[in-house]
């Protein structure tokens, strides 16, 4: 039977765990997640304003890059679901505001369908990769915290000569358990 008693954490270990929690992706359903949706809509709206200002000067396919930059901004700040929503919203806004006939979802030239598909695929890949990078950063912080604790334990154990001193040092090491 596994020992489930928790070891007391040092202030340094608590700070490292708090930092790891800050990096974790927010779970949908809480207020922070809903505010992320608001941020995503605002960023897509801002990208739309920029695209409308540039529409007389640039081709519609070049305006798609403005929306992709918006998706990158959302993906770096928000969860994966929010960035996927921003990807679809960006394609819809691009179609509605930047592709003639304007202010409709009709497409007069079918080449734009390829543009929509390409834009959506790129936006979804950006969202997925950014989410993966964020998850890797959380795992790296967790591994770093555990490595520091194991290093402190090994230093304490290397200075002990008696078995009971080694057991006491191991008990006070505050090594976080693995999550295998």
What shape does the CA trace take? rod-shaped
How much of the sequence lies in strands comes to: under 5%
Oligomer: single chain
Give a short account of the largest sheet.
none
What is the number of strand segments? 0
Order of helices and strands: HHHHHH
Overall pLDDT confidence: 80
Structural class: mainly alpha
**Helical proportion, percent range:** over 70%
**How many individual helices?**
6
Q: How large, in whole angstroms, is the Cα Rg?
A: 25 Å
> Between the first and last Cα atoms, what is the distance in angstroms?
17 Å
Low-confidence stretches: 1-5
Write a concise keyword list for the protein shown above.
single chain; 180 residues; mainly alpha; 6 helices; 73% helix; 0% strand; rod-shaped; disordered N terminus
Write structural notes for this entry.
The chain is 73% helix and 0% strand. Mean pLDDT is 80; it is low at 1-5. It is built from six helices and no strands. It is rod-shaped. The longest helix has 49 residues, at 111-159. The two termini are 17 Å apart. It has a domain at 30-140. Helix 2 (31-54) packs antiparallel against helix 3 (60-77) and helix 3 packs antiparallel against helix 4 (80-98). It has 180 residues and is mainly alpha-helical.
């Amino acid at each position: 039977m596994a020992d489930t008693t928790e070891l007391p954490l040092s202030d340094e270990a608590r700070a490292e765990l708090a930092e790891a929690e800050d990096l974790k992706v927010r779970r949908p359903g809480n207020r922070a997640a809903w505010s992320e949706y608001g941020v995503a809509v605002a960023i897509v709206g801002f990208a739309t304003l920029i695209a409308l200002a540039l529409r007389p000067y640039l081709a519609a396919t070049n305006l798609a890059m403005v929306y992709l930059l918006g998706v990158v901004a959302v993906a770096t700040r928000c969860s994966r679901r929010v960035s996927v929503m921003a990807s679809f919203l960006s394609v819809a806004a691009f179609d509605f505001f930047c592709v003639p006939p304007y202010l409709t979802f009709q497409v007069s030239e079918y080449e734009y369908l390829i543009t929509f598909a390409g834009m959506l695929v790129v936006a979804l890949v950006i969202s997925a990769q950014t989410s993966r990078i964020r998850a890797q950063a959380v795992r790296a912080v967790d591994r770093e915290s555990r490595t520091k604790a194991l290093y402190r334990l090994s230093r304490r154990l290397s200075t002990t000569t008696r078995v009971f001193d080694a057991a006491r040092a191991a008990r006070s090491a505050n090594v976080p358990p693995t999550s295998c």
